[in-house]
Design brief:
Order of helices and strands: EHEEHE
Number of helices: 2
Shape: globular
Radius of gyration: 12 Å
Number of strands: 4
Largest sheet: 4 strands, antiparallel
Length: 78
């Protein structure tokens, strides 16, 4: 069985916002990827951004600077 790891999960109100996050992170060279929203969470759309917890400050700053609307920032064992 695979060992679980703590991840930062960012949820969004819309799919467009989730896709915008992917484009922004790729352009800025920030790690992470789009995933389906984990069952432990609920969100306005079915997509979330998953990244290492160490990137929380950079990702929070990026979403604020770009005016990207998020639903929430969570840390989960996945």
């Amino acid at each position: 069985m695979r060992e679980k790891k703590r991840w930062l999960i960012i949820t969004f109100h819309t799919t467009a916002a989730a896709i915008a996050m992917e484009k922004l992170c790729r352009a800025k060279g920030l790690p992470g990827r789009l995933i389906p929203v984990p069952r432990e969470l609920t969100a306005g759309c079915g997509m979330a951004w998953r990244a290492g917890t160490e990137g929380r400050a950079a990702l929070t700053a990026l979403t604020k600077a770009e005016g990207l609307e998020t639903d929430g920032f969570y840390e989960l064992l996945l």
